[in-house]
Write a structure and sequence with these properties.
CATH topology: Rossmann fold
Number of domains: 1
Structural class: alpha/beta
Strand content: 15-25%
CATH superfamily: Alpha/Beta hydrolase fold, catalytic domain
Number of helices: 10
Distance between the termini: 50 Å
Helix content: 25-40%
Order of helices and strands: HEEEEEHEHEHEHHHEHEHH
Strand order of the largest sheet: 1-2-6-3-7-8-9-10
Length: 292
């Protein structure tokens, strides 16, 4: 029972509703859907801007959708007290001339369940990032557009895994010109910060291994960092209690491309950096403006 409870907390889909709409922000958009190579249907929005520059925004995992995060339905322990709407930075980017693709990863929001129907913390979701880029690249309207990746937390991990897939991954798309990786997260550091007793940690990890077919404690995207082939901005809150800051520095150090690091001095909450994206979107647009 305890093993299932802990595993559910870490990898079970749910609690990721699409809680607002682009129309709430007076944005011109269309609903879209597309399939991954392994047959999962993903759903999202295209926020219509210019045809020559597209941002693919990939959200964080477990409690998030393309909309962002809402505390509604999250029980007594909440990551953030208010909605964090990712449409805020989408609106700003749109006003700067960008089209923005926002989509739900598998097992999140309104997208379908994957096989297996569990959140993998990046390896399986890498196929979603590839599918999103391919969807834009094969769209007659945007086929000649430059693409920027705005990849948040598990989205950053998934994007990194996708760069490690060689000719089957993101490296085959020369139209990707830049990436922003927001708080790339190491699973083991997160679980350690969670403070679970050792016996619960081991039991939950064993159950998750049975469900996913691999061990979250040993599966890592670190070898794939060096394969990222576009200029990258890494963003991290200095006061994030849910990560290992040395690991984030290591992620940055392993990048062999033009790169920048933006350390933020925010409140002692992991979600503070996610909220920052919408309240201070200028650094995002400024970075993409340099390369797209």
């Amino acid at each position: 029972m305890f093993a299932k409870m802990v595993s559910d907390m870490m990898i079970k889909p749910g609690n990721s509703p699409v809680f607002d709409q682009p129309a709430d922000f007076s944005l011109d958009y269309e609903d879209v859907e597309f399939k991954t190579r392994d047959g999962v249907t993903l759903r999202g929005w295209i926020i219509k801007g210019g045809n020559d520059k597209v941002i693919v925004q990939t959200h964080f995992g477990v409690q998030c959708s393309r909309s962002g995060y809402t505390p509604e339905g999250k029980g007594r322990i909440k990551m953030w007290k208010e909605n964090i709407s990712f449409l805020r930075q989408a609106k700003y980017l749109n006003e700067r001339g960008y089209t923005v693709l926002m989509y739900d990863m598998r097992n999140h929001g309104e997208s379908d369940l994957g096989n297996p129907p569990w959140i993998s913390w990046g390896p399986n979701e890498a196929e979603d990032v590839i599918a999103a880029v391919d969807f834009i690249s094969s769209n007659p309207v945007y086929k000649d557009a430059s693409i920027g990746l705005l990849s948040i937390c598990m989205g950053a991990v998934a994007s990194t895994y996708a760069y490690g897939k060689g000719d089957a991954g993101l490296r085959k798309y020369p139209n990707i010109k830049a990436m922003i990786a927001v708080q790339p997260l190491n699973y083991r550091a997160f679980v350690k910060a969670f403070g679970l007793p050792g016996f619960l940690d081991k039991a939950g990890s064993k159950k998750s291994r049975e469900r996913l077919g691999f061990d979250l404690d040993t599966k890592t995207f670190v070898p794939d960092i060096k394969h990222v082939s576009v200029p990258t901005l890494v963003i991290q809150n200095n006061n994030d209690p849910w990560t290992d800051l040395d690991f984030v520095q290591h992620y940055y150090d392993e990048l062999h491309v033009e790169k920048d690091m933006l350390w933020l001095d925010l409140s002692k909450d992991r979600a503070a950096a996610y909220d920052y994206l919408g309240t201070n979107p200028e650094p995002l647009a400024d970075f993409f403006d340099r390369y797209l």
